[in-house]
Amino acid sequence: MGHSKITSSASADRQLRLDGWGFVGEGFAASSELLAWLTERLGRPQPFGSFDPAGAEAPAPATLPDLGCATSIESLDRLAHARGRGFPDLVRLRSGTVPRLPDAVARPVDDRELEAVLTAGNREGLRIIPWGGGTSVTGGVNPPTDAAPVVTVDLAGFSGLEHLDEVSGLATLGAGTTGPALEAALQAKGWTLGHFPQSWELSTLGGWIATRSAGQESLGMGRIEDLVAGLDLTAPAGRLSLPALPASAAGPDLRQLVLGSEGRFGVITRAALRVRPLADCQRVEAVLVPDWASGVAASRALVQGDVPLQLLRLSDASETQVAMTVGLGRSRFAPLVRGWLKLRGIGDQACLMLLGASGSHRHAETTLEAARTVTRPHGTVWLGAGPGRHWLADRFRHPYLRDGLFDVGFGTETLETAVPWSGVDRLYRTVGEALSQPSGDGEAPTPVLCHLSHPYRDGVSLYFTFFFRCPQDPDLAVARWAEMKRRANDAIQAAGGTLSHHHGIGAWHAPWLPQETGDDGWRVLRQVAKELDPHGILNPHVLLDRTDRLEE
Amino acid sequence: MGHSKITSSASADRQLRLDGWGFVGEGFAASSELLAWLTERLGRPQPFGSFDPAGAEAPAPATLPDLGCATSIESLDRLAHARGRGFPDLVRLRSGTVPRLPDAVARPVDDRELEAVLTAGNREGLRIIPWGGGTSVTGGVNPPTDAAPVVTVDLAGFSGLEHLDEVSGLATLGAGTTGPALEAALQAKGWTLGHFPQSWELSTLGGWIATRSAGQESLGMGRIEDLVAGLDLTAPAGRLSLPALPASAAGPDLRQLVLGSEGRFGVITRAALRVRPLADCQRVEAVLVPDWASGVAASRALVQGDVPLQLLRLSDASETQVAMTVGLGRSRFAPLVRGWLKLRGIGDQACLMLLGASGSHRHAETTLEAARTVTRPHGTVWLGAGPGRHWLADRFRHPYLRDGLFDVGFGTETLETAVPWSGVDRLYRTVGEALSQPSGDGEAPTPVLCHLSHPYRDGVSLYFTFFFRCPQDPDLAVARWAEMKRRANDAIQAAGGTLSHHHGIGAWHAPWLPQETGDDGWRVLRQVAKELDPHGILNPHVLLDRTDRLEE
What we know:
- The structure is a homodimer.
- Chain A has a 7-stranded antiparallel β-sheet, with helices on both faces. In chain A, strands 5-6-10-8-9 form a 5-stranded antiparallel β-sheet. In chain A, strands 1-2-4-3 form a 4-stranded mixed β-sheet, covered by helices on one side.
- In chain A, a hairpin with a 2-residue loop joins strand 17 and strand 18 (459-469).
- The first copy, chain A, has 18 helices and 18 strands.
- By secondary structure, the first copy, chain A, is an alpha+beta fold.
- The first copy, chain A, starts with 31 loop residues before the first helix and ends in a 20-residue tail after the last helix.
- Among the domains of chain A are: 32-157, Uridine Diphospho-n-acetylenolpyruvylglucosamine Reductase, domain 2 (2-Layer Sandwich); 281-394, Alpha-Beta Plaits, CATH 3.30.70.3450.
- At the A-B interface, strand 9, helix 9, strand 16, strand 18 and helix 18 of A face strand 9, helix 9, strand 16, strand 18 and helix 18 of B.
């Protein structure tokens, strides 16, 4: 069927889809309501094709030396490791126009084998790309078109729970462990990491660390950088083995230098993580607020008021409309919600919040009661737990929706940033305006949705989703997307936001990075890379390469 | 009177003491009970002299170029900037045997003047030492004996509140702002940073950042690295200006590279800090537990049980005895406590805990009630708020005790580390044994006290205090102390602890740092230093110099 069987401990019985998100047989179809909503705004789309890679001839791989570990040069395996899962990746995969495959997929299973691959890379001038779950949406795992022979190193061999210190709540796991495998291993012993990025079903611990991932429950559990107590990194010229420590004043924290290093400084092989006993209960309540300003104020009041929530999300009015259409559209709560909206006459401006609490039943109850008190002055109406259960059930399935929209010809992409609370209004307006420009000549304005999530006392992340008619020509599709990304990156930086709150830099954001770090900060990072990877074999095209690769 | 008048915004009306802790006229005398306790264990000491610097001739300073800012070569000013406040600093200052003074004290007042100093340093090969409050206990501000002309840069000119963003709770302050000046500026507007290291009355924001400081209320407020949202650094070859962001996935966090850089990468000039509204109430309750093991278990249960305490300290049995003698000895609660101890027959093993809660009155009440419930299985007896009030009143005065002990001839020093909970027992035993060896031939075993503080879910800091008879010969006094420090550093590393939880590395811990970072991690830090300070003018003798300078 054109799909390579790729095994991992987490998906031993499921086939990964080669040209879309996730697993074969899974999906999240666009509802007729959503398609109508989009068509009304953008016009009727042209279906975007799907390519059968089984029938295509892959270019012959470069001749490679012995890498000292299991190595595959099989075409479908190379294709399965050719791209991440950003919009242009799906365009290239679906249209059979991937410009560059890795020449081989290496599968080391221990430190010694990994070192052998890096030694060969140093000696032969190979380009090495570490691969965890392959879910990058920043071009972080894509072989660049201008590269020397490329070896993608699949880290699935570095998988599983190695040690659990139940006194300290510290679990050491291999970097190739996927989200489900990690939680299964921990939960079997009564523990959880509680790190749930949207990519959780596919992505790996090493990828989370390399990209400074934030899970959907980061408000309660912290970001991955809060959860990593120690880690090991194998570099082309050196090793870091940083022990698990609760805190330290012994110089700058080298863990924090590895976090976010995106395979540029070395390959993360294992980490000691701060884990917690499994909670008795998890509750997510849905709340409506009259408008965006009230919702932002309520969110800020909750987090600055120390209400110990596990999760907070606030959709803007557009995303609330779509959530009603897509998510609630098929829920028995939809009529209730719609009725309420009509009754209050605030339909277009209403914003949906999700507030989650975890822990003992009593703690969850007390927390939500505190949230009720704190948000009352902001005009909240509480809808109960139904929509929250719905969201929890679907939260890892939302990425499938993109493939369903592709089938009918709509493109969709997401991007995200973070900013202090005082900058939320300006950033929301600036980025919204930049994205809402028509995606091309003759196109309608681009519908843009936004939500706040991952709130902090001093600021919050903003997550934008936008839709456009996808041209059938893959180069044109990618070019239009690239133009929107450039506008968005410029707008984010003009409004004081960070280039990324949790997706990372990869290849696609890299030209904008010096603006955020400053030239001297960028130079420092490049120098660290030189020290650990003097020949520039590990991912030199990501993070610290200013080349615009949005259209590769 | 032999004291230089050193002004800062925090101490405009108080003179700093030149040969001891803090301000002239302040003190914390050793009680007769404490002196009896020490004499019983160590024997009668010989008083240690005090030197009048006003009468001494300072060596002539090296001829220096124009530094582009106000510069002093006055002897007392140079002496006032010659040493930190570790044990050997006090020995050298009190005995008039400081081996090296800075040749000048420069006082830039803005970025331009600071850059001029660094430019002169690059051009003339000067050794530049940034100076905040001068409270280093790791040799972090001492001119090395083997150095080129030394200019100490006093950053008092970079002082004060520059900006307050009340929506985001972000305050931007100059790095030279002292603790009292910082809190005064914030509290005048209803805000607080809540960062209270023991050195708070003297130390500065820049020093806290440079050394990864932790305040006594770090359990509730976080460490300085949790409180810094953005910062500026001026280096001999570059500048970092990292904006305030709540979180980011835009590559490795450069803020975390500056935190703990100890003036090696550049001079921190300002920072944007996460501040909070002033709490309505602060309560500290004293609790006794039957023994150390119960206390450790209770502490771990509190922090892993998410009881939102602001502060937790657990003294071991020895420190509890001394606290009773010194602290409670003069309190009206002492008879009550002693009576209780006798009644229970657990006098020698009882351990004192202090548990603090802040916020609204109701939140503090609820938190302490939760603490009562969580600790009950560990045999706690609650003593009320009296001892806590006592501790709060004296907490910044404890360092004065060291000078009082010096006067009669006892030396005392403190050191600290952190370790996962599973390593607490081993570390407590290993370091305790290493320190309790006699300080010299013919000396009795060294009394060692310890407390846990700064607990985290996965571990905790251990803080050791030890006492010895101070030889009257300053070189011998320093040599004995150095031998104890070497044994302690070795023991900490053998037991898996970090070299420092909040004092930093400075010059004195630097030879042990590669063991903690690994050689490759150490090499990375050195490379960062080279990139920002290619001529090695800024503090090259601290953090990344393996020379043993304990006896300088």
